Amino acid sequence: MATIINLLYNHPQSRAPRGSPEFSLHFSPPDISSPRDINCARPALSTWALQIVGPELRRQTWELTQNDPSDPTDTTQLRASTNGRAKNVRLATWDAFGPISIPRIASTYKRRARGLWYVTECCGAPTMNGVTVLRKRRPHNMVQVGAISCLTLSRNRYASGYLALPLAVWQFACRTHVDEKRAFSRFGFTVHDTTARACLDSLTDSSMAELRTSVAEGIANETMYWQLVLDNCQ
Where do the segments described as Disordered lie (predicted)? Predict the structure, then answer.
């Protein structure tokens, strides 16, 4: 079947004549045209393929907004705070932030959304003589991670555990100007500054809870325990 479709698509007579209305209908989205309404093979097949791939990419993006059921350590929906009504919510802690890294996020995207990763790689990866080139100063895999993170946050505001929430905390630590925070949040790179501050409160509470637990264990065992807690300060 793939051979037949390839022959149809690449046949010289499959192209629409330059002066015909179908000449500009290649890869048309549903609001422009339906493949059933196109007579020439090449624009009809390209439109058909796009209208199949589009919903699949939308589905894969939605999958990335949900916690990975196969990974108990997944931090996709890492909440800055909770009102107590939601169940099985994972609050932000320093331990949860620890494993977060660009290579790990890229590996997660490749595994959970292969089609989306491939499409963003086609869009952002430079090539030379048909071979993908990994640049030193702006590697495309890092650009892909940033782009997909923005897309997932756009689909679901709770899917902030990839980059949006850690970057917002990092902005607070760097004393980023409030106007820059607003711009980054509007573009989907980070969560809102209010959410970041709520996250910092949760991080402080988790550290204090760890300190209390450590001291209580020491008292119970009649042993001197020590615990270092770094609070959030600027």
Answer: 63-82
